[in-house]
Amino acid sequence: MKLNIAVLAGDGIGPEVTQQAIKALTAVAVECNHQFYFKPADVGAIAIDKTGDPLPNQTLELCKNTDAILFGSIGHPKYDNDPKAKVRPEQGLLALRKSLGLYANIRPVKAYETLLDKSPLKKEIISGTDILMFRELTGGIYFGQKELSSDGNTASDLCVYHSDEIERITHLAFKAAMNRGKKVTLVDKANVLESSRLWRRVVQEIATEYPEVKLEVLFVDNAAMQIILNPSDFDVLLTENMFGDILSDEAAMLTGSIGMLPSASLGADGPGLFEPVHGSAPDIAGQDKANPMAMVLSAAMMLRIGLKEDAAATELERSVDQVLASGFRTGDLMAEGCTPVGCEAMGAELIKALGA
Ligand code: IPM
Ligand code: MG
Fold this sequence. Notes:
The protein contains 13 helices and 14 strands. The protein has helices at about 15-30, 45-50, 55-65, 75-80, 90-100, 125, 165-180, 195-205, 220-230, 240-250, 295-305, 310-325, 345-355; strands at about 1-10, 35-40, 70-75, 105-110, 130-135, 145-150, 155, 185-190, 215-220, 235-240, 260-265, 270-275, 330, 340. 3-isopropylmalic acid binds near residues 90, 93, 94 and 245.
C-alpha cells in the first residue's frame, strides 16, 4: 500500500527522535510491503524563525491532504521565559489540533516489566498498570476566550464545553473500554465547576448505552492521588483537556520515563496526528541523548489506528520490547548492568530488532 505521511519534526529533540522513527518505519515498510512517502514540513519555533508563523499555511495544507501526521515536539526556552511573546511555538500545535478537528487524544500508559525499577514508585504498585487515557483536545480552557485587562493586572481564560464535544469522545472511550477491562473512570471537578457538572451528566447518560461497562467518577484532585496510589485500578480514563494534560504527565512517571509514552490525536474524519507525549527537551536537544522509543511507539499507533496496518504496528512494538529486554538504554532509562546508548544507536538497535 502507498501512504503519504506528513512529518512535522518540530523543535528541540523532535528532529532527532523523528529521524529514528522514519528509519524504523522504512524498515517495516520493506518487511510488510508498503510504500511510505514522507513529506516534511515546519511547525513550532523553527517555523516562527523561518516564516513568523508557528503553523505556516503550507504545513496546514500538507496536513489536510495526507494519510497521517507524524509529529515530533515543539517549544523553545526563548518563548517560555517571555510572557510578552505574541507568537509561541505551542500555538502551532493547538491551531493544528483545532483546524483538523483532532478532538480525541489517546494516551496509553503501560508499565513495562523491563523498566519497573525505573519508576520512582514501588514495583508492586506499578506492576500490571495499563491505563488508556482519553483526553478531550479541542475544547475547554485551552480554547475559551482569553482576556488581559488594559492595565495588565487582570486575566481570564474561559472554560467552555458543549454537550456534543463531550458526547463524541465519551463514545470513543466507552467503545475502547468494551475491548479492554470494561471500566471507564470519568475525571472531573463536578463539586466546583459547572462545565464538569455538564460532563458528568452527559457521560452518565451515555453510560446507560454501554451496560457492560462500569462507570466510575473521580474528582481530579483525588484522581491525581489514585493514579500513584493504585494505578492498576484504572482501565479507561476519560477527562477534559486541561485535566488530561496534567494527569497524562503524572501517569507517564508510572512507566519510568516520559520517553516511553506515545499518543494519537484523532478527529471524526481526516488524518490523525501521532506524537510522543514528551516535549522538546531543549536541555538535551542535539546531543544524541534523547530516547526515540515514544516516537517509534507513536509511529506504531499511526500504523494501527491511523492506517489500519496492524501487523506493521505490532512489529514496531515488538522491536521496542526486544531492545529493552536486551538491555539497551538511553540516559532516561539507564540502570545498572544495562548498555548505554544514544538516540541514534538506539534507533540502530531497533532496526536490528526489526530484522532489517
Ligand atoms: C501536550 C502538550 C501541549 C498541551 C502543549 C505543547 C501545548 O503539553 O500535548 O500535552 O498542553 O496540550
Ligand atoms: Mg502536556
